[in-house]
Design a protein that fits this description.
Elements lengths: L8 H26 L10 H54 L7 H21 L13 E11 L2 E10 L22 H5 L9 E5 L4 E4 L4 E7 L5 E7 L4 E3 H10 L1 H6 E8 L2 E11 L7 E2 L14 E4 L18 E2 L4 E5 L11 E7 L11 E9 L8 E7 L4 E7 H4 L6 H15 L7 H5 L6 E2 L9 E5 L6 E4 L6 E7 L4 H51 L3 H26 L1 H7 L3
Length: 576
Amino acid sequence: MVSSILTNNGALTALQSLKSTQKNLLNTQNRISTGLKVATAKDNAATWAVGTAMRSDIANTKQVSENLSVSSSIVATAQTAAEQIADLVKQIRTKVTSAQNPAVDKAQVQADIDGYIGTISSIVSAASFKGVNLIDSAGSQNVLTSVNSVNGVSTASYTALSKQNLSVEDGSMLSSLKNLTVLSRADQTLSNLNDGVQKVNLTATGGALDLKSGNELEVKYIDETGTDRTLTVKLTKNITTVEKLVEFLNADAGFSEKFTADRSIVNGTASTTDFTLSAKNRDSSLRLGSNSGTSSVSLTDVLKVVAGADGIAPATNALGTALNDIDGAASTLEMTFANKPLQLGDEFVVSLDLTPGTVTTDKGDITYKLKVVGDDYETGDRIFDGSSVDDRVFVIAVAASDVTNTNVTGKDIATVLKDALVEGTGANGWDIDNVTGLTGGGFLAAAAAAGVNYGVEVDTASGALRLTSADGTDALLGFNSSKTDYDTLLSKLDEATTNVANAAASFGTAATRIDMQKDFLDKLADTLTTGLGALVDADMSEEAARLQALQVQEQLGTQALSIANQAPQSILSLFR
């Protein structure tokens, strides 16, 4: 080896080795400091590029998972609301069933039902999470469930959550609850409970009564089974006028449970001698009188005064009659309509009999159905659909334009129905006299004729529609509007129950899917993180061993460089 003072090959070699050792030592220290073997693109460009892409995927996956947490809360809000609504529908069903009890106040039951329906509407409006409501309309709500990267191209994947319109509106899943009522149309359109109930007219001759406290009044009636019954009312005070008699009867618990007494008030003038008795309400099948008549229900001794348990004999003419009883005379139907419009499809049924038999129906029965129909018809026109000449059922048109406008009054409705009955039985209507072959059968607006016609008028003071017979041989059986059928109500509730249950189940399924997807994304993020670590993370055990080795190499390199730097001193010794 050439000894030179110009070139110290040993020092150069030692220096290069030391530089390499220090470079490796710096890299090892960086890996230990960062925990990464590929921290920058300079470390390993290809691996760094893959790692950067994976870090982006992991961050995006975690964000999608966070989004699903919010979506889960949105669905949970809708599910909770749907379950609450399902419970309210159950409560409504219970109320509808309770209304079938004749002792229950249907108006109060209806108020409860309306309250429940109002609560449903309130829940629908409030079931919103950060402005997103899944139960107030139809359609769908897209939820981001993943972002997939294929060949460097990212594609979003969505799941459509079906909205469930649980509002109580037309076209909604709970539309069957709209206008749900346990009240019949008669209850909604007529003002009094005994509107449309056959009233038996009674007359106290002279109007002067002499009823004594302790006397008893007997009311003859036929019960639901067709059995003759007598209701006894004990007088607890003296009664001298028809007005006071009516007040006392209606105040008596036993009488008022089944019947109602009314003063006869025609065109604003109250009679001092005439009054009426009737069943309490339209749902009752009780009928005043007895089955003792040979060709009709007997109205003899409908109201009678007797001595009673106290043994106080009634005075002569106590009821204005020598025998202390009052026979039923003509029957009356009165209907006082509410000041609100009728609806298309409303139907009012007038049942009457020109040759009444007993409680069974015979061929003397005639039924007129007044039906509110579209404007292709005029009031009084014949409607063939639903009519039966053989069964003497005749459907008469009531033009919707006459009774459905918002400012119509009860008196207006009464007038239109009167016109329908009068015109509908005349030449422009059914001309029922000729159709049925009966003598009579039509209505007259002026007056009733026994065995021939019934009178129809509108009271000038009250606006009530009044139908009257000439005497007790003609029977006005009833005037009723479309009744609310329990089976129909149950059908509507079944539909609502099924729909809301399906809605809640749909939200439950969606919540499960979202939770499963979120769990998957969380595990996917962990898996990707593990894969990324395998690519770029430093093996700290290996790096620690390498660090110790490099530190030793650095010391040795420094020592070698120091020895190499002493070589020129040896050359100088040659020249001494």
